[in-house]
Amino acid sequence: MLQFSLVIVPFGIYIAYLFGHLRIKKHIHIFLLALWGSSIILCISFPVSYGNSMNHDFRIVPLLIGTLYGGRKTGVILAAVVILYRLYFYGVNVGSITSFLAIIIGFSPILYFQKKFEKSSKGNRIKIAIMLAGFYCLVGASLVGFFRGVSAESIIVQIAHFGVAAGFAWLMIVLIENLAEIYTMRKEMHNAERLRLIGDLTGVFAHEIRNPMQVARGFLQLLDTPDLPASTKKQYIKLSIEELDQANDIIREFLLLGKPPTESNVDVNVGNQLERTVKLIQNYALSKNVSIETNIDVDCMINGNRQRLNQFLLNIMKNAIESMPDGGTMVASCYFVDDSHIEIRIKDEGIGMSKHEVERLGSPYYSLKESGTGLGMMVSFQIIESFAGKLHVFSEKNNGTEVVAIIPVVR
User: Fold this and answer.
1) Which residue of 74, 165, 193, 270 has the smallest Cβ count within 10 Å?
2) DSSP assignment, residue 374?
3) What is the pLDDT of residues 281-325, one digit of tens each?
4) 0.85 cut: is pTM over it?
5) What is the DSSP letter of 343?
6) How far is it, in rounded angstroms, from Cα 368 to Cα 281?
7) Are 302 and 407 in contact (CB under 8 A)?
8) Contact 36, 77 (CB under 8 A)
9) In the chain, what are the domains?
10) What end-to-end distance do the CA atoms of the chain give, in Å?
11) Which residues neighbour 350 within 8 Å (Cβ) at sequence distance 6 or greater?
């Protein structure tokens, strides 16, 4: 059981790395060497002992996984770790000679088949891994029998040990391949769902865009009317521009929805971006008789896409202002919750929402505004998720709304 745990714990760490829970972008090979090398060293340090100074361990499992998934260079270094640490721990004896010959004879096919393993399908990968683990264990058992002698008891122990070791290696490979397949399928399903959603929205956008375009076209036709007063022309031009701006907003939201998350993340000072957005929207707020107050802590730093953060802030603040048709006060805050998270809060004194309306926020097609498409909030939820954060909306009918984004800070 100890030998199992000495392999299972590094295996769990490897799975976390493989599927993105551990985001290691630099020195990956060093990480893999340290992970599987430590597993090998621990397996050799705490072997299963029996009989006449006989020891067995599961070093084959991290050696096999590290080589097949880490590459030949990683495998050669791991093999060197086996030999050198075996000599350091036990010195030069029959066991060390057996380990050395097992590496030379049994490990060479693992290096040879590594490239073929990388290019193979899931089923063939499992077959190759079983074949290599079985061959290595067979070589080890044969060498032990040659140097230690053969007896009924030793044969039983060798078969039991190397059978369990080969089976354990097979189990680990099967788990990795199955989990990788599930992970790939989930990513494909996620992308398919995104494309399906965009396809479903196409009809809605065609309708939403056609309306303002037709209105703008009608006003432009009216501008050709003889003897049209200058004031009327000015009004028609203004209305046409407003309709075209609305169509542009719909197209922009559609593009943001369909755009996959980018990796161009940088350290962003949320307080600075919050102040910048307040300045941008200040005139719009004054036209709606809305005053803006801010409460910002110093150095609220997060890691993410600055442009997407600005888009989120603009969406939420615009919604807050438009929810107060009779004017009021909007409060924009950014402060530390603890050492690891910050909160962005946008609070208004608007018409508010019912519990049912809050639950539907972020759904496509759903908007409380007559000309809305519901994509502004949908994109906002998506943006905060891309920052590894959470977005909450608290509201009561006729009692205002508060939008709270909780985002991890830069350590």
Assistant:
1) 193
2) S
3) 888 888 889 999 999 988 888 988 887 888 789 889 988 998 898
4) no
5) E
6) 21
7) yes
8) no
9) 2-189 (1.10.1760), 190-258 (1.10.287.130), 266-408 (3.30.565.10)
10) 38
11) 320, 322, 323, 324, 325, 328, 400, 401
